[in-house]
Amino acid sequence: MISFFRSARETLPPSSSPTLQPAPTSRSSPVSGLHAVWLISLAIGLWTHQMLFLARFVSQVARLFTGIEIHPGAQLGRRLFIDHGIGTVIGETAIVGDDVTLYQE
């Protein structure tokens, strides 16, 4: 549980990408991207423990609230930052490395 909070804190914009945000107004400005990554982290944990239905349910709830669809089978690196993520889809076979910033214009 502590590792979740540590990774959640390091995903916050100023520590993950202070110079990559084109127009940050506050630490909470890209809320939907952060919530999507945090919820998918939970879904990935469920997926790895073979709770497939619950993992897909959590990922669909995240998609409903954030507009960002990330499959729980995707491999996400540390400090993933999604800015303007409505309509972004990351599939099951995707591998996203560390320190990645996704922009959707």
Secondary structure: elements and pairs:
Elements: H1 2-11, H2 13-16, H3 31-48, H4 52-66, E1 69-70, E2 75-76, E3 81-83, E4 89-90, E5 95-96, E6 101-103
Parallel strand pairs: 1-4, 2-5, 3-6
Helix pairs in contact: 3-4
Strand content: 5-15%
How many domains?
1
Low-pLDDT stretches are none
Could you give the count of β-strands? Answer: 6
- Give the overall form: globular
What is the arithmetic mean of pLDDT?
Answer: 78
> Helical element count?
4
Give the fraction of residues assigned to helices: 40-55%
Task: Report on the architecture of this protein.
Helices cover 45% and strands 13% of the residues. The strands form 3 sheets. The chain has a two-stranded parallel sheet. It has one domain. The chain has helices at 2-11, 13-16, 31-48, 52-66, and strands spanning 69-70, 75-76, 81-83, 89-90, 95-96, 101-103. The N and C termini lie far apart (34 Å). The protein is globular, with a radius of gyration of 13 Å. The chain has 105 residues and is an alpha/beta fold. It is built from 4 helices and 6 strands; from the N terminus they run ααααββββββ. Helix 3 (31-48) packs antiparallel against helix 4.
